[in-house]
Structure formats: C-alpha cells, structure tokens
Amino acid sequence: MKIGIIGAGEIGSAIARILTRAGIPAAIANSRGPASLAALTDELGPTLTAVSAAEAAQADLVFLAVPWSRIPAAVAGLGPWTKRIVVDTSNPIEAPLFQPADLNGKASSSVVQDLVPGAHVVKAFNHLQPGLLAASPAAQGGKRVLFVSGDHAASKHAVMALIQQLGFAGIDLGTLDGGGRLAQFPGGPLPSLNLVKFG
C-alpha cells in the first residue's frame, strides 16, 4: 500500500517520523514544493520522498495533515478520490486565536468527507500533541492509544493495521459522525488524553 502525506507541519512531520522509524516508505508534500522539504527528507532518510501534492494524493492511503482553514485549498483539484483512503488528522481550530470553526452542526470529518468526494475518510492521528505522537509508542509497559473512526469498514481496518504496525494500539470509536466527534478538538472528551493499552 502506497502512503502519501499532504502537509509537512508539526503533524505531517510527526507522521513522517513514525512511518520512517518503522521502515515504511512514504511520500510527503506541502504547498511550497518538494525542494522545501530537503532538510526533512535528508534527516529521515531514503524511505521518505518529497513530491508534489498531486503525486502524494495518488497514494492508496493519504494522510491529510494541514491546518483546518487550508484544507479546501490543499485538496482542490487533487481528485478523483474514488476508493482512496484519506486519513483526516485535522482539528477544526487553529493557533493563535484557537477559536472553533463553525461546522454548522457537522462533525469535522464529515466536512472533510464533503471536500474529498468518493474517498473513504478515516479520522485518526489527531488527538495527541505532535511531540507525543512522534515519541515512542511504547509506554509504561503498554502501547500508546490512537483512536480511529470511519464509515467504511475495510478502510478502517487498513488504518488499524497500520497503527498496529507502527507500534500503537488502535481503538475503533465507530462512525465519522459518532466516533469522530468523540476525538474531535474542540468538543470531544478524548483529545490530548495520553492513554496506554496493556495486553
């Protein structure tokens, strides 16, 4: 399964780090072009390749890791998304004001789903701070927890399998609208909880 990352900020870079640590190849893109990612790819080694956003979007599984307000522009023109897995790592809030986005009552990942029609959107990798996400998934004799939500069972299973391969423990919260709200910041009870699963 080919993996792409759109966004190379704190979350995108953290995901790149945990993928390369596990020896999993990935392609990463940002809005400034591949040349701007040379320092990151030099640091993380040959399993991480800098590409254009259009190239990253062609992967079987695409991590969407850009600030909330930039998502529409980041995905514009990158379709069709049919049957590709899009992992929504976003939260509908941004520094420096940290004012919640107006979602008109929708779960944030349902808004993302509308922006990538045909994709199988899975909400994951969004509830931990970037530094903690990039740290070792092993903690206190157990595995650090990552929450997963989505409406397509096979796509959720693929993300859960990747999470396990990375050394984390995945917990399925259910649908995008139901489970997605639990792990969404702000509003959900689960963001920033550093939970560890034993056994």
Textual characterization of the structure:
The chain is an alpha/beta fold. It has a single domain, classed as Rossmann fold. The chain is built from eight helices and ten strands. The chain has helices at 10-21, 38-44, 53-56, 71-75, 108-115, 130-134, 153-165, 179-182, and strands at 3-6, 26-29, 48-50, 61-64, 85-88, 120-123, 138-139, 142-150, 169-174, 196-197. Strands 1, 2, 3, 4, 5, 6, 7, 8, 9 and 10 form a ten-stranded mixed β-sheet that branches. β5 (85-88), α5 and β6 form a beta-alpha-beta unit. The two termini are 28 Å apart. The model has no long low-confidence stretch (mean pLDDT 93).
Largest sheet: 10 strands, mixed
The CATH superfamily appears as NAD(P)-binding Rossmann-like Domain
Determine the strand fraction and express it as a percent band: 15-25%
- Overall CATH architecture: 3-Layer(aba) Sandwich
**How would you spell out the order of helices and strands?**
EHEHEHEHEHEHEEHEHE
Which value, in Å, is the CA radius of gyration?
Answer: 15 Å
Total helical segments: 8
What fraction, in percent, of the residue positions are helical? Answer: 25-40%
Count of individual beta strands: 10
Number of domains: 1
What is the CATH topology? Rossmann fold
Principal-axis shape: globular
The CATH class, by name, is Alpha Beta
End-to-end gap: 28 Å
Average pLDDT: 93
Structural class: alpha/beta
Enumerate the spans where pLDDT stays under 50 for 5 or more consecutive residues: none
